[in-house]
């Protein structure tokens, strides 16, 4: 399989990167010295604004997960928004550490990882939007081995769970009132071969990674998505510092405008987005066009769009989904409020100033 996400342990949604507490102190010191960087800028559309250079930290390698960012770059939307360059920094990496330390203006991660750091470390971070309305974590099984399609199907099964994902797995069992003794949790690493060879019945994984590997290898994958069974939370979240929201507001809004335009193009032509990923932005990662195309299709039809985005635009996070994300964090043992984690005011301003961006589904 190619560039398997399971080869890296950064995908833990509850992992706190080493050095984050130190970085948070650094960020707070920098914030005290920060000036009001938007004083001479006039709008998020970039027409009369110049923001110089910007950077976005990816949590993962340059595969189709970030296809909207590639199209924002390829089609000149970052330039149109007022940026000289936008550096897209590949992972795997802790996006929270990169943003807090000032090494990136924005990071793309998930609500549980960021929420954990905010709750545990008091990190000065906010989520200002989310690409995925539905998180892609899943319990993957195969039709002829495990066949875990419902919660009842978990009984008596052996599930491979990575140490970094154990707290989320335990939260999943808790919210669904599943006794740990009713199944076997097997500590595993990140290579899902044990599932594909039948050594375990299920595997803690990603809809857009191992499940696609199984599909392309003719193994008939069966998914039990966490988002559909008690643990909904937003993912591919756009994370920035509190200081940037205060002092670089127009710059962040300009990034949002370019990102929305890039993702509009991506979901309207996922095949072209996948080809651009493989040929231009991710050629060093030995990506396959088949897998990237399937990921692009799944993202475009199932993860990025929802009734909320149809009503309020891409990256929107409804009040209900914010609270569901907080409930999931609570289930992992953390205490945090929606106001401590989310700030959707910039996105609201972007759509008020650029109402044409709302009609992402009507693009040619």
From TrEMBL:
List, for all copies, the residue spans of the domain called SsuA/THI5-like.
63-273
Q: Name one GO molecular function term.
A: metal ion binding
| Pathway this chain belongs to | Cofactor biosynthesis; thiamine diphosphate biosynthesis
Among Gene3D superfamilies, the record links this protein to: Periplasmic binding protein-like II
Keyword field: Iron, Metal-binding, Pyridoxal phosphate, Signal, Thiamine biosynthesis, Transferase
Catalysed reaction per UniProt? Answer: N(6)-(pyridoxal phosphate)-L-lysyl-[4-amino-5-hydroxymethyl-2-methylpyrimidine phosphate synthase] + L-histidyl-[4-amino-5-hydroxymethyl-2-methylpyrimidine phosphate synthase] + 2 Fe(3+) + 4 H2O = L-lysyl-[4-amino-5-hydroxymethyl-2-methylpyrimidine phosphate synthase] + (2S)-2-amino-5-hydroxy-4-oxopentanoyl-[4-amino-5-hydroxymethyl-2-methylpyrimidine phosphate synthase] + 4-amino-2-methyl-5-(phosphooxymethyl)pyrimidine + 3-oxopropanoate + 2 Fe(2+) + 2 H(+)
Signal sequence residues: 1-34
Q: Which InterPro entries match?
A: NMT1/THI5, SsuA/THI5
State any GO BP term from the record: thiamine biosynthetic process
- Give the UniProt family note: Belongs to the NMT1/THI5 family.
What is the annotated quaternary arrangement, including any partners? Homodimer.
Q: What is this protein called?
A: Thiamine pyrimidine synthase
Q: Which organism is it from?
A: Cryobacterium suzukii
């Amino acid at each position: 399989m190619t560039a398997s996400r399971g080869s890296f342990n950064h995908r833990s949604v509850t992992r706190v990167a080493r050095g984050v507490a130190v970085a948070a102190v650094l960020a707070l010191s920098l914030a005290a010295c920060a000036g009001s960087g938007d004083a001479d800028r006039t709008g998020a559309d970039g027409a009369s604004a110049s923001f110089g250079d910007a950077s976005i930290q990816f949590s993962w390698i340059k595969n189709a997960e970030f296809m909207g960012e590639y199209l924002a770059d390829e089609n000149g939307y970052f330039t149109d928004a007022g940026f000289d360059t936008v550096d897209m920094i590949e992972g795997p990496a802790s996006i929270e550490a990169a943003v807090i330390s000032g090494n990136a203006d924005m990071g793309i991660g998930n609500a549980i990882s960021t929420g954990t750091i905010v709750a545990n470390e008091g990190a000065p971070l906010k989520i200002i939007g989310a690409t995925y309305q539905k998180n892609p974590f899943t319990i993957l099984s195969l039709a002829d081995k495990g066949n875990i399609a419902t919660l009842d199907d978990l009984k008596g099964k052996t599930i491979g769970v990575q140490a970094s994902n154990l707290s989320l797995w335990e939260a999943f069992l808790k919210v669904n009132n599943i006794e740990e003794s009713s199944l076997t949790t097997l500590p595993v690493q990140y290579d899902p071969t044990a599932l594909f060879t039948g050594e375990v019945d299920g595997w803690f994984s990603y809809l857009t990674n191992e499940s696609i590997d199984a599909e392309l290898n003719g193994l008939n994958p069966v998914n039990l998505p966490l988002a559909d069974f008690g643990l909904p939370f937003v993912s591919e979240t756009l994370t920035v510092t509190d200081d940037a929201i205060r002092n670089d507001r127009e710059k962040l809004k300009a990034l949002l405008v370019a990102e929305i335009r890039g993702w509009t193009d991506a979901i309207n032509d996922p095949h072209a987005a996948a080809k651009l990923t493989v040929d231009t932005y991710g050629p060093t990662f030995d990506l396959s066009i088949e897998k990237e195309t399937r990921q692009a299709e799944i993202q475009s039809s199932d993860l990025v769009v929802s009734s909320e985005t149809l009503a309020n635009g891409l990256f929107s996070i409804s009040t209900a989904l914010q609270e569901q994300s907080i409930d999931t964090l609570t289930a992992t043992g953390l205490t945090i409020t929606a106001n401590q984690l989310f700030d959707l005011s910039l996105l609201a301003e972007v759509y008020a100033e650029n109402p044409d961006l709302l009609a992402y589904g009507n693009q040619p």
